[in-house]
Structures are given as C-alpha cells and as structure tokens.
Amino acid sequence: MPEQPQIINTQYRFSQIASFPRVIGCIDCTHIRIISPGGNDAEVFRNRKRVLFYKCSSCIVCNSDLKICNIVARWPGSAHDSTIFANSRLKATFETNEYPNCMLLGDSGYPLKRNLLTPLPAVRNRGQQLYNEAHIHTRNCIERLFGTWKRRFPILAYGLRLKLSTSLTVIVAAAVLYNIAISMREEEPPDDAADQLNYLIERGRLRVHLIRNQLVNYFENIDNL
C-alpha cells in the first residue's frame, strides 16, 4: 500500500480515470489452479465455482498503474472474497485509521464499508448511475492487472503442479517480478495465446543471441587478455 507521502499522488492518479475521489487501491481475488494438496484439508481448496479443480485464492490490491500493492496468497479456493478481506491485516490497518480519508473499491462480493466502496445493486437516479459508472471504470484496473499478470506468467493461468507451500511462494514471487517489469516499463505480453507463445519463444531467442554475442565479443578480444 502507498506510504503517507504517496497517498495524495495515488488518489490524484485514480481520480484521473473517472473522477472518483479518495481511492488508493482496487481490490479483488483471483483463483490460481493447483494440484490437490492432499491430506484432511484438501477439499477446502476445491474451487467453489468449478468443483473439478483445486485452486488457491489470491487477494490483491492494485494502484492505477496496475502495480500490485498488497497480496495475500494463502487462502483456499473455497473461501469467499469477503472472508479473505475480513481476516486480512489490510482490513485492520483501515479500521485503525492508518489510511484516513482513503478508500478501496471492490465488487459486489465485498461488504460495503466506510473504507471499502462497492457498486450499487440498483440504480434509481442519475447520481447513482454516474457513481456506478465511475466505480466500474476505476475498478477496471484490477481486472486488467489479472489479465496482464497471467499473460506475463502463463503458469498462473494454466496451473501450478507443485506442492502447496511452493505454489504459494511462486505466486508471491510472480507478483514481485511483475511489479519489477512494470517499473522497468517492459512491454506487455500479447492477448492471443498463439501470439503469447511466439512472444515467449522470441524472448528466449533474444536472450540466447545476447549470450552468443557476448561470447563472440570475448573471442574477438581474447588476444588482448
């Protein structure tokens, strides 16, 4: 989450999207497929939406630049988004007023709170319509992040075949590497699956060519060593 000196700038950047004030992050959960962890608690990892798969649920908060500001990756796929947030340290920081005059935006899977705003279930006037439209446009950041994150690290989309503790570590590591890629302005991977495969292959080829060119340079200067 943003430090105190960064909060005003974070709120300003969010307000530039759809004029929604005081927002410092958008929150949502995404499911990542895993193999059955086994043991007595295996069934709690079975996805509540698609019962054939085992998944873990990662709760993420992002900023307007699509950077991950907060991640909790230890919950099973059967856990509801609101349950994860209710038991999070993030909720506690808001309740202790660590972020005064700030709020998060979440979808209807979250409860309406003083610092967590959700869309209106029914629209009755123009003000409510504009509120919902601004909420949707601003919160779209988190949906875009999930797509970009999983395209950059396809293993998150196709599933992890590792033991549970290792899978959770990989998810958090992928979040850290994703933020580094954003900071370094790495190009976004393509949307199409075939294009994505070609992209990954080409990136691999470029790295191989770089290594070979470095060795060529080494041999060109070997007499000077």
Overview in brief:
The protein has 225 residues and is α/β, with parallel strands linked by helices. It has seven helices and five strands; from the N terminus they run αβββααββαααα.
Q: Extract low-pLDDT stretches.
A: none
Q: End-to-end span in angstroms?
A: 50 Å
Helix share bin: 40-55%
For the largest beta sheet, what order do the strands appear in spatially? 3-2-1-4-5
Instruction: Tell me the radius of gyration.
Output: 21 Å
Total count of strands = 5
- SSE arrangement, N to C: HEEEHHEEHHHH
How many structural units, i.e. domains? 2
Beta fraction = 15-25%
Q: What can be said about the biggest beta sheet?
A: 5 strands, mixed
Number of helices: 7
Mean pLDDT: 85
Globally, the shape reads globular
- Overall structural class, as computed from helix and strand content, comes to alpha/beta
Describe the structure.
- By secondary structure, this protein is an alpha/beta fold.
- It has two domains: 186 residues; 34 residues.
- 48% of the residues lie in helices and 16% in strands.
- It contains seven helices and five strands, in the order H-E-E-E-H-H-E-E-H-H-H-H.
- The chain has a five-stranded mixed β-sheet.
- A hairpin with a 5-residue loop joins strand 2 and strand 3.
- Helix 1 crosses helix 4.
- The longest helix is centred in the C-terminal third of the chain and has 28 residues.
